[in-house]
Write a structure and sequence with these properties.
Elements: E1 11-14, H1 28-39, E2 47-49, H2 61-75, E3 81-85, H3 90-102, E4 107-110, H4 122-135, E5 140-144, H5 155-164, E6 168-173, H6 178-189, E7 196-199, H7 205-210, E8 215-218, H8 221-236, H9 240-257, H10 265-275, H11 293-305, H12 311-319
Parallel strand pairs: 1-8, 2-3, 3-4, 4-5, 5-6, 6-7, 7-8
Helix pairs in contact: 1-2, 3-4, 4-5, 8-9, 9-11, 10-11
C-alpha cells in the first residue's frame, strides 16, 4: 500500500471499529465493509486503526498487523491511515512504529505508557518519544490524556517533546478541562512550528471546535463521520447557526456513547452499527461484555433523534 508522504494530521479523522465473530476472531469481511463505509464519507482527512476503537489492548501483534493490512487494502488508496502505538515499554512501541511504517501507515497515534499512572518525568516522556522517532520518520500524534490519570503530559513536558522530537505534528487532546483545552489550542497551534490540536472531546465537540481546533480524532466517527465532517466544516466557516443545528443531531449519540461506564463507548458504537444494518453483530472481547437490552434501546432512540434511523426501520429490526 502506498503511503501518503505529505499527510499532516488535521481535519476529520474517524477511528474505526473492529468487528468480531462469536468465537472472538476478527470478522474480516465485516471489517472490510465497515472501512469502505467510513472511507466513502466526504470530507475526511484520514482514518485511524489499532486504537481504543479497535480494542487494540485485546489484539495480538499479528492481529494488529493484519488490521493494518486490511485497512490499507480497503481504504489506503483513498485516505492516509493513522496507526496506533499502544505499548507499555518504549522498545515495543518502537517495534510497532517500524511495523506501521513498513505496512504503509502515514502517521502514528502514540498512547501514553501505562506505567506513567505511577508517575513520570519529562525525561521519561522524552525517552519514550525519541525511541519511537528513531524507529520511524512518520508524523507523530501525541495522545494527551487528562492530567488526573497520571498519563497526561504537563505543558512543560509537551514543550520539550515538541522542541526535541520534530516529527511530532499534533496532539489528540483528551483534556476535559475547557480552560486547559483552550490553552492547548492557542499555545500549540500558535507555535513557530505549529502543533495541530485534534479534539477527542466528543461529549462537547461543538464547544471544542469553536475554540479553534485544527481537527478531530474520535471513535464516534465510526458511526457519525458524516455529521462530524459537516460540523467541522461549519466551525471552520464560522457558520454558528449551521454548527448548532448539526450539534443538535450529534448530541443524542454523544450522550449514549459516552455514558458511564466510559469504557463501553465503542461497545455501544458497535450496537449502533448493528441497529443501522451496517454490522451483523456487536461482539466485544473480554473483559468487555455485551451491554443490556435497555441500553441498546437508548442507543436506538438516540439514532432516531439524530435522524440516522427512521422509526419504522427501528421497529422492524426490533421485531426481528
Amino acid at each position: 500500500m502506498a503511503r501518503h508522504p505529505d499527510f499532516v494530521p488535521q481535519g476529520v479523522i474517524p477511528a474505526v471499529l473492529l468487528p468480531f465473530h462469536e468465537d472472538l476472531s476478527i470478522d474480516e469481511a465485516s471489517f472490510r465493509a465497515h472501512l469502505r463505509d467510513v472511507a466513502a464519507v466526504q470530507g475526511l482527512s484520514a482514518i485511524t486503526v489499532n486504537a481504543h476503537s479497535t480494542e487494540v489492548a485485546s489484539c495480538t501483534r499479528d492481529e494488529q498487523r493484519r488490521v493494518m493490512e486490511i485497512a490499507g487494502e480497503e481504504a489506503g488508496g483513498k485516505l492516509p491511515i493513522v496507526h496506533g502505538v499502544w505499548a507499555d515499554g518504549s522498545l515495543e512501541a518502537a517495534r510497532i512504529a517500524r511495523q506501521a511504517q513498513a505496512g504503509g501507515a502515514s502517521a502514528l497515534l502514540v498512547f501514553p505508557p501505562a506505567p506513567f499512572t505511577l508517575g513520570q518525568t519529562p525525561e521519561m516522556a522524552l525517552a519514550h518519544f525519541k525511541a519511537i522517532a528513531d524507529a520511524s520518520d512518520l508524523p507523530i500524534i501525541v495522545f494527551q490524556y487528562p492530567l488526573a490519570t497520571g498519563q497526561g503530559y504537563p505543558m512543560a513536558t509537551l514543550e520539550r517533546l515538541f522542541d526535541e522530537a520534530p516529527t511530532i505534528r499534533a496532539i489528540k487532546d483528551w483534556t476535559p478541562l475547557v480552560p486547559q483545552h483552550e490553552n492547548h489550542v492557542r499555545a500549540l497551534q500558535g507555535r513557530k512550528r505549529p502543533i495541530n490540536v485534534l479534539s477527542t472531546n466528543s461529549a462537547f465537540l461543538l464547544s471544542s471546535l469553536v475554540l479553534g481546533c485544527n481537527g478531530l480524532l474520535s471513535g464516534s466517527g465510526s458511526v457519525i463521520a458524516d455529521l462530524q465532517a459537516k460540523l467541522f466544516r461549519a466551525a471552520q466557516a464560522n457558520d454558528l447557526a449551521e454548527a448548532r443545528r448539526l450539534n443538535d443531531l450529534i448530541y443524542p449519540t454523544a450522550r449514549v456513547f459516552y455514558a458511564d461506564p466510559f469504557v463501553d463507548m465503542h461497545n455501544r458504537m458497535k450496537e449502533a452499527l448493528v441497529l443501522l444494518g451496517k454490522l451483523p453483530r456487536a461482539v466485544v472481547r473480554p473483559p468487555l461484555v455485551k451491554i443490556s437490552e435497555a441500553e441498546i434501546a437508548r442507543i436506538r432512540d438516540a439514532l432516531i433523534a439524530a435522524g440516522l434511523l427512521d422509526t419504522r426501520a427501528a421497529l422492524g429490526r426490533n421485531a426481528a
